[in-house]
Amino acid sequence: MANSKVAPMPIWILFAVPTAAFAALACLIAFGRNPIVAQVAGIVGLFSVGAAFVVVPAAIYTLVVNRGLRTIPQFIGTAFCSLPILGMLASFLFGGI
User: Fold this and answer.
1) 52: which of 20, 29, 62, 76 is 20 to 30 A away, CA to CA?
2) How far, in Å, CA of 79 to CA of 61, rounded?
3) What distance in Å separates the CA atoms of residue 25 and residue 11, rounded to the nearest whole number?
4) What are the extents of the domains in the chain?
């Protein structure tokens, strides 16, 4: 069942996407009174969450299809990359993070 044509998701992408989302959220909280910083942080946060919607399913697919790629860093990176999506869902469902 293992497909050797599936490449692993790079670890740096799995950690860069949620880091950008959390940095944008921190800038939005810290410098929210400045309208330019708030707009740029909001746009970066939205693009980071949008990228997470692409990266997380691709990472899960690679973990499911190829057993050789099931390593601890891949599992941790996939779980860490899903945090912006979970934060967005929590804010929609419960009104805050």
Assistant:
1) 29
2) 13
3) 22
4) 11-94
Instruction: Mark 13-24 as b/e (b = at least 16 C-beta within 10 Å).
Output: ebebbbebbeeb
pTM for the model stands at 0.77
- For 58-69, the pLDDT digits (tens) are 898 888 888 888
Six-digit token string for 28: 């939005």
For the chain, the farthest-separated pair of C-alpha atoms sits apart, in whole angstroms, at: 54
Q: Tell the burial category of 31 from Cβ atoms under 10 Å away from its Cβ (0-12, 13-18, 19+).
A: middle
Which sign, positive or negative, has the C-alpha torsion 71, 18, 54, 87?
A: positive
d(CA 56, CA 41): 22
CA–CA–CA angle 48, 19, 61 (5° rounding): 65
Q: Phi and psi dihedrals of 2, rounded to 5? A: -70, 135
